[in-house]
Amino acid sequence: MNTSEVAKLLGVSASTIQRWVKQLELPMEKNERGHYYFSSDDIQLLKDIHEKLQGGTLLHEISPVSEKKSVRKGTVKAVENDQAMEKLFTKVRELELNLNAKADSVASYQLLQHRREIEELQDQVKYLTQQMEQLQSQLNELRSPLQTEKPIVFDQSKVKRKKKNFVSSLFGF
């Protein structure tokens, strides 16, 4: 039976069963996914624990049960586990090295791209600066002849002005 089935049978929650197993260090078997599964002997042991708790005994007063003699299913032997772990560590190191090399090459490529873009922008700035200088010189050339010409000034002392009569000055004739 699994944990929830045993919990329904005893009338407690699944987390209560898990807590009993952990706190009393009960040697329950686990499946390949790490979930507890209980045999009829295990269920009887849990029923006894439940009865003791119902009788007023505290959980920490219940003595832990001695280990079962059978090998737990779903576990790997230590020697095989060490070899497998070493293979995994080696593979992880190789992947990290490959990842770092790839990251370095991507960063180098991006730097070269940015450098090319910056050079293109610098060329554009130089071209625009030349164009601006050329336009500025053309503008200066256009202004210079105007300033050298002398303005026409009338000699006002010799010019006789007509006097306007009072009515025409009012109406702007």
Task: List the topology elements.
Elements: H1 3-10, H2 14-23, E1 29-30, E2 36-37, H3 40-54, H4 78-148, H5 166-171
Antiparallel strand pairs: 1-2
Q: Determine the N-to-C terminus distance.
A: 120 Å
Structural class per helix/strand content?
A: mainly alpha
Q: What's the helical proportion of residues?
A: 55-70%
Biggest beta-sheet profile: 2 strands, antiparallel
β-strand percent reads under 5%
Shape estimate = elongated
Report the order of strands and helices: HHEEHHH
Give average pLDDT, whole number. 80
> Residue ranges: pLDDT <50 for 5 or more in a row?
66-71
Number of strands: 2
The DSSP helix count reads 5
Physical arrangement of strands within the biggest beta sheet: 1-2
- What is the C-alpha radius of gyration, as a whole number of Å? 50 Å
Structure description:
With 173 residues, the chain is mostly helical. It is 64% helix and 2% strand. It is built from 5 helices and 2 strands. The chain has helices at residues 3-10, 14-23, 40-54, 78-148, 166-171, and strands spanning 29-30, 36-37. It has a two-stranded antiparallel sheet with strand order 1-2. A hairpin with a 5-residue loop joins strand 1 and strand 2 (36-37). Helix 1 crosses helix 2 (14-23). The longest helix has 71 residues, at 78-148. It is elongated and about 135 Å long.
